[in-house]
Amino acid sequence: xxxxxxxxxxxxxxxxxxxxxxxxxxxxxxxxxxxxxxxxxxxxxxxxxxxxxxxxxxxxxxxxxxxxxxxxxxxxxxxxxxxxxxxxxxxxxxxxxxxxxxxxxxxxxxxxxxxxxxxxxxxxxxxxxxxxxxxxxxxxxxxxxxxxxxxxxxxxxxxxxxxxxxxxxxxxxxxxxxxxxxxxxxxxxxxxxxxxxxxxxxxxxxxxxxxxxxxxxxxxxxxxxxxxxxxxxxxxxxxxxxxxxxxxxxxxxxxxxxxxxxxxxxxxxxxxxxxxxxxxxxxxxxxxxxxxxxxxxxxxxxxxxxxxxxxxxxxxxxxxxxxxxxxxxxxxxxxxxxxxxxxxxxxxxxxxxxxxxxxxxxxxxxxxxxxxxxxxxxxxxxxxxxxx
Length: 388
Description:
It contains 23 helices and no strands. The chain is mainly α. The longest helix is centred in the middle third of the chain and has 15 residues, at 205-219.
């Protein structure tokens, strides 16, 4: 029996480069390495081939590559050939419509898909996206809640719910969602961080500290260390707060919050020189920050260096004219130097901005008392106490 030559067999085989599998893999390779245009052309070519089987995966690849119209053309053609309603076609078409900002059409499509498969969490997630695009966050929450019932162990859905609640200032509901995330994925740093932020908003400082500790353990960043330090300071655990601010500055020496907040802690502990060193460092990095300049001047006042402090207050006011806090602090500084008239002018400027500034009225009363204008001083004190 004669065996066929290998070359004859090869000629009868279909070329690999024309096969569906080869072109599908090649398209994925192009997409992975950034040549999306080539990948899209190959996927469209695959969809245009005659086939009795729907290629939902290829259509999904096109959607992921933001080739919404190409995917939509195929899906609408496929739908016209179908005898029954297909939830998968409706879902993928809804994704195309969302990508093309056709939200009402997307909503109708995904609602049709949900009628057939109400236990598919992805469908509910997409409906939530539609409601969010339409500005109806409460309906979005209902959709995500249904998604969670369909897939109770999906932490990302819990997280989305928490973010929506947090954005709309429903901190307690947000906290419950983030707690659920932490139970489902206890080593996810982001979930612990969001849980900690909600505790902080709810003034649950000990719980906030514990959650930030875990967030730092599972994904330590200088920002997290700074937030943990802030929590400890708010919870009157100064030693731990200082420790974590120092840790932040060790890894990120120009960390704004740590420099300014640690300086404030030192100032409150009567460690003015340590505070000044940190503020000098901060100002060298952020020379046009009016709040830093204000804080630096405030520390100088406590060292008795009022002339230098006044210079920094004025520099801060040049950056943010009519800032009430900086105006008030400059008035205090000038009154300590005995610059009565300039102090009076600046306090009056402050009171034009905020006529109910009690501290401003009290300061003005003290100035008039110092220059023996008792009647005017009494009027100012009455306004400070809201008696006039």
